[in-house]
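Morning, I've got a small favour to ask if you have a moment. It would help a lot if you went through both lines with me. I owe you a coffee for this, so here goes:
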Amino acid sequence: MQPVQVAVGVLGDAAGRVLIARRAADSHQGGLWEFPGGKLEPGETLQQALDRELHEELGVRVLATEPLIRVLHHYPGRSVLLDVHRVLAWSGEPSAREGQPLRWVCPATMTGLNFPAADHPIIKALRLPDRYLITGENPREPKQFLDRLDLALEAGIRLVQFRAPSLGAAAYRALAGELLARCRSRGAQVLFNTGLDVALELGGDGIHLTSRQLMQLRERPLPSEQWVAASCHQRAELQRARELGVDFVVLSPVKATRTHPQAQPLGWDGFGGLARDLGLPVYALGGMQPDDLPQCRLAGGQGIAAIGGLWGGPASAHPGAPLAVAPGSSNLG
């Protein structure tokens, strides 16, 4: 079945809210909330369709955009391919030109509203920031470790994976408690990269699965209110992540790294070929720096994941995405 291609626009305001509209009751998925947009007409480019649809629906003209996510979803009797872009600049004031109800809503509160199933990955992408910190060196030196963490949080990091494979279980728990308290005080979310039992005991915002853990699981290990992320390196792992209902993935290595010199880098073309149509937010890992963010977005990525490129210090400073997740939210749709 050939999917219907739909251009979708995400408009955000200075308060971090996003504009949504309610579908007409007599339409497909009628009565549900959605992000503005509509299907491409014959001969239209994506940008032309997005500008036309937002002008018809909201009375605005699109001036600048950047890719957010592509979602292929199969409904009974119909398939849709949502090509979603953040609208970074527009002219005019959004208004309901077709009489549809409009609301400006924080992404963290969208879980209380009814959206079509195809829109759920969009909500997750909006709730996630563009940088995902993987904790780095010195876990056996807690003061140095936590000082570096503080630098990263001061630079704006709001999503942290606590990875410390050199620590035993007791030391991991002790340092995790300190890390979690500091992240909570800055509105940052924490995912634990450890055994599932320990992660559940620590009470963070979710778990980050290794590729081995991912391939051994038979079902999603946490409820929808907590994040489940996974490390992936190849198509089979990405497919498994999607089957299990993982919320987002890290795909690596994009570039050659000193820590894994034997690994064949994907490059941006390889990354984009795997990430662009996955239908999940995908972070690029492997030699990443904040300057890689524009290229990552063009390749279909959510943002970058890094140790050295984000682990404290002035070089880590980079503004977050315009519609980054509201600090401290941990509930999912």
Summary: The mean pLDDT is 90.
